[in-house]
Amino acid sequence: VTKRIAAVIVFYFCCWTPQWTLNLLHLFDLITVSWSTLTLSAISFGAHLLVCFNSAANPLLYALINRELRQQHSIAMEKRRQSLSSATHAAMDFIGKHSHSPFRRKGTVPPSSSASRYSAADRS
């Protein structure tokens, strides 16, 4: 457990330290970040990307560290696969049983072209 907590803390520290450092330097007027200072703007943007990366990677980090969470996820995904498969089969069985299409019934011939729609009297 201690290694897991240490990994989360180190990851947080690595991602947030550049942002906090830039904020403190800016707060005490030691640097001025503007579009005219291209290098500082790029560094600030990179620090902001690290913060975003930390937020996006946290769920993955917790999932990789926690074995129980991985096992629960695997069980849930297997149940979902089974549920989708059974629902699909049930829907196809229902459609097959309740379809009134002449193409679905065995032994029936599909209606021919327009000739079957008209009687002999209509053709004259």
Characteristic key phrases:
mainly alpha, elongated, 124 residues
Any overview of this molecule?
The protein has helices spanning 2-27, 38-65, 67-98, 120-123. With 124 residues, the protein is mainly alpha-helical. It has a domain at 2-66. The radius of gyration is 33 Å and the shape is elongated.
**Unreliably modeled segments:** 113-120
- How would you state the average pLDDT, rounded? 79
- Number-wise, the strands total 0
Approximate strand percentage: under 5%
Radius of gyration: 33 Å
Distance, first to last CA:
91 Å
Order of helices and strands: HHHH
Helical fraction: over 70%
GO molecular function: G protein-coupled receptor activity
Subcellular location: Membrane
Biased composition (Basic residues): 97-107
Transmembrane segments: 5-22, 42-65
Write the layout of secondary structure elements.
Layout: H1 2-27, H2 38-65, H3 67-98, H4 120-123
Helix pairs in contact: 1-2
GO molecular function: G protein-coupled receptor activity
Keywords: G-protein coupled receptor, Membrane, Receptor, Transducer, Transmembrane, Transmembrane helix
Biased composition (Low complexity): 112-124
Sum this structure up briefly.
With 124 residues, this protein is mainly alpha-helical.
